[in-house]
Amino acid sequence: MKITSAEVFVGGPGKNYVTLKIMTDQGIYGIGDATLNTRETLPAHYLTEYLIPCLIGMDPRKSEDIWQFFYRGAYFRRGPIAMAAIGAIDMALWDIKGKIAGLPLYQLFGGKSREGAMVYAHASGNDLEDLMDSIAYYREEGYQAVRVQCGIPGMPKGGGYAVADKGDSKNYITNFLGNGPKIEIWNSDKYMRYMPDALGEIRDRFGFDMCLLHDVHHRLLPREAAQFAKEVEQHRLYWLEDPTPAEDQSALEIIRQHSTTPIAIGEVFNSIYDCNKLIQSNLIDFIRVSATYGGGITSLKRIVDLAALHNVQTGFHGAPSHSPISMAAQGHLNAWAPNFGVQEYLVLGTPECDALFPSEHKMEKGFFYVSDAPGLGVDFDENEATRYEFERGYHPVTRLEDGTVWNY
Ligand code: CS2
Ligand code: MG
C-alpha cells in the first residue's frame, strides 16, 4: 500500500482550520488537523513544502516509522509548527489504519473504558451575575463540568480572560480574526482580590455537585499562584488551569508546597519532553496536551501512558480552534484512556461546521460519545471547503496598567 498524494486546505466557518487529506493507491484516504490558532498558514507550509514530498510513496500503515522519520529524522525538532504538521499526518495515518481494519480507532487502542466521556463547557460573563446566568444555562443543558471566567471589577473588559459580551455569554467563542492584536489590560492584584470569593459565590449558588474549573491563563507569578491555589482550596475546584507560564516548570513546585488544589497544564506543550518531568514529579494532576500540536495520536498515547503511571489524568485541550478532526482523535483516546479525566469541548454543533466535517459523533448532556464508524469517524467535504479561505487573526496581547507586556 502506498501514499499517492496529500493536500492541505486552510479555512472554515469563522476559523482557519488546517486540514490534511492523504490519499492512497487503494482508494482509502485519511484526514488530519494541523490547526495552529492564529498561525495557521505555517504548519500548512511546513506540510506542503517539506513533509508531503517525502510522504509520497511511503506505506501509510507504518505510522510509527513515519512519525519517527519526521520527528527524529529532522535536525530541528519539536515546536508547535512542526508538531502540528506531524500531528496532522499521524491522525490521517491512524484514520487510514482504522479504515483498513474496519474498526473505530478506540478499538485499536484497547477498546472502550467508558461509553460517554465527560466534557466541560465554557461559562463566561462580563461580570459575576452574567457568569451565573451562563453557568445556569450549561447546567440546564446537562453539563456536569463547567469552566468559569468572569470580568474583574476595575479592569477593562477582557481582563479576567475569555470574557463574553454582555448577553452573549452562552455563545461565547473566542474570535481572533482581524489585522492586528487586541490589547487586554491586566492587574493581578485586582484579580487575586476578586476571583477567590467569586468562586465561593458560585459554589454557594450551584453547590458542590458540579465540577468547577477555572483558567488563570498563565497570568500569575509563582508566589501569587501558590497563594491563589491555597485560597481557593475550600471551593474544591476540579482544576486550576495554567496558573503560571509553562516555561518555568519549577513554579509548579512552589504551588504544590502550599496547596492541594488540582493543577492542569499543557495546552501549549507539544511533546512528551515538555511534560515528562511534571508528570514524573507529581507536580500536576491533569495533562492538557492536544492531538494537533502535540504531535498526533502516536505522541498523545505515549503521554497518556506515562501520565497513567503517575496518577495524572487527561484533560485534553479543546478550544474552539480545534477542528472536529482532532476532537475525534481525542474522542477515541478519551473513550479508551484508563486515566481519562475530562475533555474541553466547544467545536461541533454549528450547521456550517457539521457540513464541512460530517460525522456521527454525538454530544449529549455534557458527554461525548464516539461513533463506531471505522477510523476517526469524521469526514471532510472538499466542496464545502471551497466556500472558505484564510483570514488573518492574532491572539490578543496583554499589558499591565503601566504598559508592560504581560502573558496572554
Ligand atoms: C484556552 C484557550 O481553552 C483554553 O483553555 O486557554 O482558549 C486558548 O486561549 C486558546 O487555545 C489560544 O489559542
Ligand atoms: Mg486554557
Describe this structure as you would to a colleague.
This protein is α/β, with parallel strands linked by helices and 408 residues long. It has two domains: 3-104, Enolase-like, N-terminal domain (Enolase-like, domain 1), CATH 3.30.390.10; 109-374, Enolase-like C-terminal domain (TIM Barrel, Alpha-Beta Barrel), CATH 3.20.20. It is built from 13 helices and 17 strands. The longest helix is centred in the N-terminal third of the chain and has 22 residues, at 80-101. It starts with a strand and ends with a strand. The relative contact order is 0.16. Residues 164-173 have low confidence and may be disordered. The site of D-mannonic acid has 9 residues, from loops. Magnesium ion is lined by residues 215, 217, 241-242, 267.
Keyphrases for this structure?
408 residues, binds D-mannonic acid, TIM Barrel, alpha/beta, binds magnesium ion, Enolase-like, domain 1, three-stranded antiparallel beta sheet, ten-stranded mixed beta sheet, globular, 2 domains
Please sum up the structure shown.
The chain has 408 residues and is α/β, with parallel strands linked by helices. Helix content is 35%, strand content 18%.
Shape: globular
What is the fold named in CATH at topology level of the largest domain?
TIM Barrel
CATH architecture of the largest domain: Alpha-Beta Barrel
Q: Treating each run of at least 4 consecutive H or I residues as one helix, how many helices?
A: 13
β content, as a range? 15-25%
Which spans of ≥5 residues are poorly predicted at pLDDT below 50? 164-173
Instruction: Tell me how many strands there are.
Output: 17
Supply the number of structural domains: 2
CATH class of the largest domain: Alpha Beta
Order of helices and strands: EEEHHHHEHEEEHEHEHEHEHEHEHEEHEE
Bound molecules: D-mannonic acid, magnesium ion
Summarize the amount of helix as a percent range.
25-40%
Q: Can you summarize the main beta sheet?
A: 10 strands, mixed
For this structure, what is the CATH homologous superfamily of the largest domain?
Answer: Enolase-like C-terminal domain
Alpha-carbon distance between the two ends? 46 Å
